[in-house]
Amino acid sequence: MLKEKLVIKRKAATLITVDFTAPEIEGYAMAWLKLCNNARELKRIIWKIENDAKNKVYVWCDPHYKDEMIDFLTGIVYFHKDEKPIPIGKVLNISDDTIGVPVYEYESTCDSNDEQWYKDIDHAISNWTAIQEVFD
């Protein structure tokens, strides 16, 4: 029998605080939508995003891609008002942070001399492989 164990692994991250203030709510919505869509596609780089009521957005990302994320978030979209393009997305702060990432581990409840132990190990490996495919 396999027993699943959830462990929170701590990873170094870069926290980027961005101002998504726009002249109208549609500008904020466009910027947030673009960020969410890219976060889904770039889940190896963008690990977590949050927003608050003051149009600030917090992005936790892989520190190795910090510069690319800053470039992406600065002027993430342009809102057109009175025929003028207004860039939305101004980086306010960049800091080092630590983020918790869920890691699932599997262990057998059988003795290592039991044949069920070998079956459990095979299942654990296939479960781990399936989880890796989801996160890749």
How would you describe what is shown here?
The structure is a single chain. The protein is built from 3 helices and 6 strands, in the order βαββαβββα. It is elongated and about 75 Å long. The protein starts with a strand and ends with a helix. The mean pLDDT is 84. With 136 residues, the chain is an alpha+beta fold. The chain has helices at 25-41, 66-73, 115-135; strands at residues 2-19, 46-51, 56-61, 77-81, 84-88, 90-108. The chain has a 4-stranded antiparallel sheet with strand order 2-3-1-6, with helices on one face.
Feature tags:
136 residues; alpha+beta; 4-stranded antiparallel beta sheet; two-stranded antiparallel sheet; 34% helix
**Total number of beta strands:** 6
Sheet having the most strands: 4 strands, antiparallel
Q: Approximately what portion of the residues adopt beta-strand conformation? A: 35-45%
Q: How far from one another are the termini? A: 27 Å
Low-confidence stretches: none
Shape: elongated
Write the layout of secondary structure elements.
Blueprint: E1 2-19, H1 25-41, E2 46-51, E3 56-61, H2 66-73, E4 77-81, E5 84-88, E6 90-108, H3 115-135
Antiparallel strand pairs: 1-3, 1-6, 2-3, 4-5
